From TrEMBL:
<feature type="binding site">
    <location>
        <position position="176"/>
    </location>
    <ligand>
        <name>phosphoenolpyruvate</name>
    </ligand>
</feature>
<feature type="binding site">
    <location>
        <position position="101"/>
    </location>
    <ligand>
        <name>phosphoenolpyruvate</name>
    </ligand>
</feature>
<feature type="binding site">
    <location>
        <position position="28"/>
    </location>
    <ligand>
        <name>3-phosphoshikimate</name>
    </ligand>
</feature>
<feature type="binding site">
    <location>
        <position position="176"/>
    </location>
    <ligand>
        <name>3-phosphoshikimate</name>
    </ligand>
</feature>
<feature type="binding site">
    <location>
        <position position="174"/>
    </location>
    <ligand>
        <name>3-phosphoshikimate</name>
    </ligand>
</feature>
<feature type="binding site">
    <location>
        <position position="28"/>
    </location>
    <ligand>
        <name>phosphoenolpyruvate</name>
    </ligand>
</feature>
<feature type="region of interest" description="Disordered">
    <location>
        <begin position="1"/>
        <end position="25"/>
    </location>
</feature>
<feature type="binding site">
    <location>
        <position position="326"/>
    </location>
    <ligand>
        <name>3-phosphoshikimate</name>
    </ligand>
</feature>
<keyword id="KW-0057">Aromatic amino acid biosynthesis</keyword>
<feature type="binding site">
    <location>
        <position position="357"/>
    </location>
    <ligand>
        <name>phosphoenolpyruvate</name>
    </ligand>
</feature>
<feature type="binding site">
    <location>
        <position position="401"/>
    </location>
    <ligand>
        <name>phosphoenolpyruvate</name>
    </ligand>
</feature>
<feature type="binding site">
    <location>
        <position position="33"/>
    </location>
    <ligand>
        <name>3-phosphoshikimate</name>
    </ligand>
</feature>
<dbReference type="InterPro" id="IPR013792">
    <property type="entry name" value="RNA3'P_cycl/enolpyr_Trfase_a/b"/>
</dbReference>
<feature type="binding site">
    <location>
        <position position="353"/>
    </location>
    <ligand>
        <name>3-phosphoshikimate</name>
    </ligand>
</feature>
<dbReference type="InterPro" id="IPR023193">
    <property type="entry name" value="EPSP_synthase_CS"/>
</dbReference>
<feature type="active site" description="Proton acceptor">
    <location>
        <position position="326"/>
    </location>
</feature>
<dbReference type="GO" id="GO:0003866">
    <property type="term" value="F:3-phosphoshikimate 1-carboxyvinyltransferase activity"/>
</dbReference>
Amino acid sequence: MSSHAEPQPMTARKSGPLTGVAEIPGDKSVSHRALILGALSVGRTRITGLLEGQDVLDTAKAMQAFGASVNRLGDGEWTVDGVGVGGFAEPEGVIDCGNSGTGVRLIMGAMATTPIRATFTGDASLSRRPMGRVTDPLALFGAEFAAREGGRLPITVTGVAEPVPVRYVLPVPSAQVKSAVLLAGLNAPGQTVVVEHEPTRDHTERMLAGFGATITTAETPEGREITLTGRPELRPQDVAVPRDPSSAAFPVAAALIVPGSEIRVPGVSRNPTRDGFYRTLLEMGADIRFENEREEGGEPVADLIVRASALKGVDVPAERAPSMIDEYPILSVVAAMATGPTTMRGLKELRVKETDRIEAMAVGLRANGVEVETGDAHMIVQGTGGKVAGGATVATHLDHRIAMSFLVLGLVAESPVGIDDAAPIATSFPDFVPLMRRLGAAL
Ligand code: S3P
C-alpha cells in the first residue's frame, strides 16, 4: 500500500523526559497467523487485540478472497468464518500483500496444497525480496510457480491436487519459511517435518496446537524437528493477540535513551523466541522491570517498567539473531547513545528485509554523526556516550522499522533528525506517532 501513498516526511527533535503508559498494538506475527488459521478452520474464530496495521489488513483481505468470511466488530475485534483445511476457493482477483513478506509467504504456503491457482503481488519493497526460499520447499509438495526473474513477485502459484508430505531442513533461519511449509503440510496426507538449526519464532507451532492439530517438537542432533500430522480438522478458537515486543522496542528504546524518562508498557509478549532484544538491553545496563508475568492467548506476557539508563556497548552473539531479527535497527540507535562499541553478528538476513537494513542503518547513522563499521553479516556501532550530532534526513526505503528507528534517534540528537517518509509506519504500528507524542516526544 505504501507504494501508492504520498511520502510523508517527518522530523524528530530533542525531547524532554518521556512519561506515561505506552499501549502497544497486537503482535504482527500472531495477527497474520490468527487470520490464516481461522480461515482454515471450520466455524467461527474470534480474535481480540488484532493488529490493524496495513500488513495484517492485507492478509484479512486475502483470506476473504480465498473464501473465508472476515469481519471487523470493533477495535481489534474480528471474526473469521473459516472454510476448513483444503477448502480455499480460487480467488477472482490478484492477491496484493502490500509490504508484507510474512503475509505473502504464509499465504502461499496455506494455498499451495489445494488445487487452485492464485497470483500474488506486492509493493516495490516486497517485489524486490526473495521468494525462492518458500517456492523451493513448496515445490517439493508438488505445487508449481511462475515467477519473475530471480523468483520475485508477482508470482502465480498452481496448487497441487495430490500433495506429498515433505521433510525440509531450513537452509536459512526463517520463521516465515518454516510456517509456509507447515501450513502447506496441513493439507498433505501423512507427516510433514521441518528441521531448523536455530530456533525461530514459534507462533505457528503454538497456534496450530491450539487449533487442534497434532504437532510435536523434538530437539535432535540435527536441530529442532517439528512434525505435523496432515489433514486435521482445525477447530475455531478465541485468540487473544498479545502486544508486539518488536513494536514495543521503539518506545522502550526511546525511554532508555531520553534522560529522565520513565514509562510503563503493559501486556507485552515475552515469548522466548522473541526476547533477544530485551536480553541485550539488560546486558547493556538497562533499567527494565518485568511485572505481573502471566499467560495470555497461549503466550507469556508481562508489564514493562522502563527508566532512562546509562548504557554500555556489548557484543551481541550471532546465535541470538533469530530471537531479535527485527530489532537490530532500533538496537543500533540505542548503541549509538551507549558508551563503547556494540558489535552485532549473524545479521545476514537483515540484507533481505523490507530493505537492506544493514546498509540503511549504516548510511543513516553515519549521516547523523555516528561511526559504523559493516560487513556482509555484521555491524559495529561506536557509541557516542550520549552525544549524537543529528542534523540529517534519512531515506527509509519503504521500511517501517528504519523510519521508527531514526525518529527515535531524533529525540536525543543535538540537531533534528528527519526521515523522507513516515507512511510505511502504518504497516506495523499505525498509532506510533500519536503514542510517542503522548509520551512527550517532539515529532
Ligand atoms: C516473521 C518472521 C521474520 C520477521 C518478520 C515476521 C514471522 O522473518 O523478520 O517480521 O511472522 O514469521 P523471517 O522469517 O524472514 O526471518
